[in-house]
Design a protein that fits this description.
CATH architecture of the largest domain: Alpha-Beta Barrel
Helix content: 10-25%
Shape: globular
Radius of gyration: 23 Å
Family: Belongs to the glycosyl hydrolase 30 family.
Strand content: 25-35%
CATH class of the largest domain: Alpha Beta
Number of helices: 10
Protein name: Glucosylceramidase
Number of strands: 23
CATH superfamily of the largest domain: Glycosidases
Pfam families: Glyco_hydro_30, Glyco_hydro_30C
Organism: Atta cephalotes (Leafcutter ant)
CATH topology of the largest domain: TIM Barrel
InterPro entries: GH (IPR017853), GH30_C (IPR033452), Glyco_hydro_30 (IPR001139), Glyco_hydro_30_TIM-barrel (IPR033453)
Strand order of the largest sheet: 5-4-23-20-19-18-6-21-22
């Protein structure tokens, strides 16, 4: 395995690591925000890998994988657990204690979205470089993504608004057909990812909008709804989509009935962008449509195995939306859980997730979309460590409150944060520069990888206790191979020494770098 050794310079620079990976540093902001950090350049000659760690014969050994604002990207070190009496605790230290007996939710995995934009950006690279990109996410030396979300039709990250039934009043869906975006971009990219991952990718989807002639307004606007007389037709549309993708060799694991059905309430307030293709629902409308139309139609057409998740919107819709749906006993064996997006999480306490899990423990909670740059003037910031912290803190917070899956938004965007037909640009863990035939792994990429690489599907969150660790976030998991994973995010501007105690292993002292993300793995 090749590991990058990164030299940290005091000025903006391109650094050539000993194994050939070009590490670039972002210059300090002129505004004094200090959002500085490093990113890795991948091209024809080289792309770095996510280090694999495996069980050793030394029962006391652990591995520590570190990424930091100072320039570490998946740096690997190791140490051993000792008996507590042999650890120097003369100085006051923070402490984290692993509690294997407290077991919480199963982790289904991590992933990102193959939108039209993402697929086109990947397609615009040469085959060799695009393979590097896909292997970075899905390969054995990548960050172990096992989920792909892809829109059912057009979304804002498309070149145009579209559906698969653009012929007006085609109530038999006779003219339903996949578009060039599917046939030339999304499907080939997803199939290449599946090949790299050897088929072990779960696909999920959601529509952004029905065809204009099916809606209460002849518009893509946010507040337009599906006309009641087309509710069964809309369920048939889902079946047509799943049949078309099955014909292309792709099967779906899950769907939601609508992407962000309440965003008409919030998007105009944020950026006055009402052009986004969308469709409004109430919780009652979604519940009844799933019960009366979608679920029976999927079952009738041999798609009953596809899981259905509700809401697919932000915490602003909680707890009322899932309460309205799940309190109807008819959905118990129909709906698998709630899908949530991470925008506005800072406005709503994660306790709403606890509340829904306590009320409806049989239903899972998935995070199905999130990205940086939405609320900022600068959409793409190469090397932004602040955005890596945003990702890591969000994953830790939500998985500490019963979330089983965390799925990023676009897996690859261009240097503008697009393309996007309404110029709703954002950032991405990988930025593609097709002109140079290279791509850039952002700190956000490594932030997700600290979880997705080392917390495989089937892991379970376990309990931890802590004291004296201000401005540090943490979460722990047990893995199906008998391992333990502890992830620690240090938000402090200085290094911290803390004790890690596992009653089955002993105690060890860790030096946690300032502004760093750390994954501790042992068996």
């Amino acid at each position: 395995m090749k590991y990058a050794i990164i030299l940290v310079l005091a000025v903006a620079a391109t650094i050539e690591s000993t194994n050939g990976c070009k590490i670039k540093r972002r210059s300090e902001f002129g505004d004094g925000s200090g959002d500085d950090g490093y990113y890795c350049v991948c091209d024809m000659t080289y792309c770095d890998e996510a280090p694999n760690v495996s069980k050793t014969t030394n029962y006391s050994k652990y591995f520590l994988i570190t990424s930091s604002k100072s320039g570490f990207l998946f740096h690997v070190s190791n140490g051993i657990y000792k008996k507590s009496k042999t650890i120097d605790t003369s100085a006051p230290l923070g402490k984290i204690t692993i509690n294997r007996k407290d077991v919480y939710q199963e982790i289904y995995g991590f992933g990102g979205a193959v939108t039209d934009s993402a697929a086109m950006n990947i397609h615009n690279l040469t085959l060799e470089v695009s393979e590097q990109l896909l292997r970075s996410y899905f390969g054995p030396h990548g960050i172990n993504y096992n989920f792909i979300r892809t829109p059912m039709g057009g979304c804002d990250f498309s070149m145009r608004p579209y559906t698969y039934a653009m012929v007006e009043n085609d109530t038999s869906l006779h003219h339903f057909e996949l578009q060039v975006e599917d046939n030339l971009f999304k499907i080939p990219i997803i199939k290449r990812a599946q090949k790299i991952k050897k088929g072990k990718i779960k696909l999920l989807t959601a529509p952004w909008s029905a065809s204009l002639w099916m809606k209460t307004k002849n518009s893509w606007t946010l507040d337009a709804k599906l006309r009641p007389e087309y509710r069964q037709l809309w369920a048939d549309y889902f079946v047509k989509f799943f049949e078309a993708y099955r014909h292309n060799g792709l099967e779906f694991w899950a769907t939601t009935s609508q992407n962000e059905p309440e965003n008409y309430k919030y998007i105009p307030v944020i950026n006055n962008n009402t052009l986004i293709n969308a469709m409004a629902w109430t919780a009652e409308e979604e519940r009844d449509w799933i019960i009366n139309n979608l679920a029976p139609t999927l079952k009738k057409n041999n798609f009953g195995h596809i899981k259905i998740f509700i809401m697919d919107d932000t915490r602003l819709s909680m707890p009322d939306w899932p309460k309205i749906v799940f309190k109807d006993k008819r959905v118990k064996d129909i709906v698998s859980g709630t899908a949530v997006h991470f925008y506005f999480d800072h406005f709503i306490s994660p306790s709403v997730l606890d509340e829904i899990k306590e009320l409806f423990p049989e239903h899972s909670i998935l995070y199905t979309e999130g990205c940086a740059g939405v609320f900022e003037d600068q959409k793409v910031i190469l090397g932004s460590w602040k955005r890596a912290e945003l990702y890591a803190a969000n994953i830790i917070e939500n998985m500490s409150h019963w979330v089983s899956t965390w799925i990023d938004w676009n897996i690859a965007l261009d240097t503008n944060g697009g393309p996007n037909w309404i110029q709703n640009f954002v950032d991405s863990p990988i930025i593609v520069n097709s002109t140079a035939n290279e791509f850039y792994k952002q700190p956000m990429f490594y932030a997700i990888g600290h979880f997705s690489k080392y917390v495989p599907p089937g892991s379970k969150r376990i309990g931890i206790k802590s004291k004296n660790i201000a401005n540090m976030r943490k979460v722990a998991f047990s893995t199906s191979d008998g391992g333990i994973v502890l992830v620690i995010l240090n938000l402090n501007e200085e290094d911290k020494e803390i004790l890690i105690q596992d009653p089955e292993k002993g105690t060890t002292k860790l030096k946690i770098l300032a502004k760093s993300l750390n994954t501790m793995k042992y068996w």
